[in-house]
TrEMBL record:
Alphabetized UniProt keyword annotations: Cytoplasm, DNA-binding, Repeat, Transcription, Transcription regulation
Protein's recorded name: Transcriptional regulator MraZ
PANTHER family in UniProt: TRANSCRIPTIONAL REGULATOR MRAZ (PTHR34701)
Lineage start: Bacteria, Pseudomonadati, Pseudomonadota, Alphaproteobacteria, Rhodobacterales
Organism: Neotabrizicola shimadae
Keyword Endoplasmic reticulum among UniProt keywords: no
Listed Gene3D superfamilies: Transcriptional regulator MraZ domain (3.40.1550.20)
Coiled-coil residue windows: none
Gene from which the chain derives: mraZ
Highest taxon of source: Bacteria
Length: 178
């Protein structure tokens, strides 16, 4: 994978629902779009269908192609396959970054994020949150509330001197000839 989505970047959303994609995120989107050419417009996919998540998840075109291939090749007897198809295929949309590095948040995305007509009229702040092979897009207020709550809950479960990387378990053994 060329680059990952990392960090938290707050961005203003204007009254026309336009928001600038952070520059570092745009570079990852460009490298993850097999059809991207220099000075082109990178494409990516916004998934808004997961009812457990108040944010939307955004994937590079290449990552979403891999995910769809995996979903479509799963046997029809796979548990929850209709739900997985509905969330990742039916309840998703392709987006394209414009020449100014922005996207217009579609109505379905604004609805998912809980953006009221009043929020949109005056503009509001969104949060781009990197998550490795994807990024999440949140309404800033919701993001801040969730982060505060989950951070406290997560830390409370850990031993005081826990090495976070040790929670991943041992590294996989190196493959011969790799």
């Amino acid at each position: 994978m060329k680059g990952i989505f990392r960090g938290e970047v707050p961005q203003k959303v204007d009254s026309k629902a336009r928001v600038s994609i952070p520059a570092a995120f745009r570079r990852v989107l460009e490298s993850g779009d097999p059809d991207y050419t220099a000075n082109g417009r990178p494409r990516f996919v916004i998934v808004y269908g997961d009812p457990r998540n108040p944010a939307v998840e955004c994937f590079t075109a290449a990552k979403m192609d891999q995910m769809v291939e995996r979903i479509m090749s799963a046997p029809d007897t796979t548990p929850n396959l209709p739900l997985i198809r509905r969330i990742y295929i039916q309840m998703s949309m392709e987006a394209e970054v414009d020449d100014d590095g922005r996207i217009v948040l579609p109505p379905r995305v604004r609805e998912k994020l809980g953006i009221s007509p009043e929020d949109q009229a005056k503009g509001f702040e969104a949060m781009f949150a990197g998550a490795g092979d994807r990024f999440q897009l949140w309404k800033r207020d919701t993001y801040d509330e969730r982060q505060a709550r989950f951070a406290a809950e997560d830390i409370a479960r850990l031993p005081e001197d826990a090495d976070l990387m040790s929670l991943l378990g041992p590294l996989p053994a190196a493959q011969p000839g790799a």
